[in-house]
Design a protein that fits this description.
The protein is of the alpha+beta class. Helices cover about 40% and strands about 10% of the residues. It has a four-stranded mixed beta sheet with strand order 1-3-2-4, covered by helices on one side. α2 packs across α3, α5 packs across α7 and α6 packs across α7.
Amino acid sequence: MQTYSSKHVVLALGAITLGANGAVMATESPLSQNPVALAVEHGECADAVKLVKRDIDLNVGQSVFIAGRMLDEGLCVERNSAMATKFFAHAADMGGQAAQLDYAAKVGLGEGTAQDYANAGSQCRTAGIDPEKHVSDYSLGFVCTMRGLTSRLLRESLPADAFQIPAGAHARLEFNPANGQLFVRAATRVTMTEPTVSSRIGMPLVNIQQVVEKAWHKALAKAPKPDATRLEDHLVEVILDLDMTMEQSTNAAQRRSPDDIQPLQTWDVLHSSMPTQQ
């Protein structure tokens, strides 16, 4: 596999910024409007789990997806990556684009399902990435796995007030899977610090270029090593999901509720039409 180093990373943010919801999430309601996500945000873990159980019975797709995020990141419940995959798959079956992307990353990582970059790419294309098929399913699966893993690493590590408009925060990237070039094209505006006595202009709370680069390289080390002969020399555009509505609550991360979202043991997701691995 090509060894990626910092010299491959080109960052070109400039003044371009994404809208509050971002292109990938444009068809879905922001997490900040979902009662389950709001309960997690406020550290009301018992209420969050109760709402998840209710919405599972009602087949509320976004809440099923949020339950996957809770399990995947250990928010209000014990971390369980394999169980999270089942939630993402079921929410994707119900038409959730964000869930489809997270499920694609799980397939690429091999968490809770067989590891398969080609199948991950097929799932990712279903979510609307590279519809013109500039790259193969295998290359796309690798890129989308990187996208999902990097997004999660950043949501878990960035300051809660990193962005001026935190709901739906995103960063738009282009990545060449063959040579490792990474271009950060745009991002939601970051929060500025208060001006100091010596300066009339505040400084960005975070250097988005640096944090994205760091997280991307960390993801490269965690993702399964791809077959370099199957990676095309072509830029693929993806959008990182940096909406930290739930992650910004320290109480949620402390897992105050002992409930593991047990409905999966009886819920029909275990018998649902989870996408078949190729």
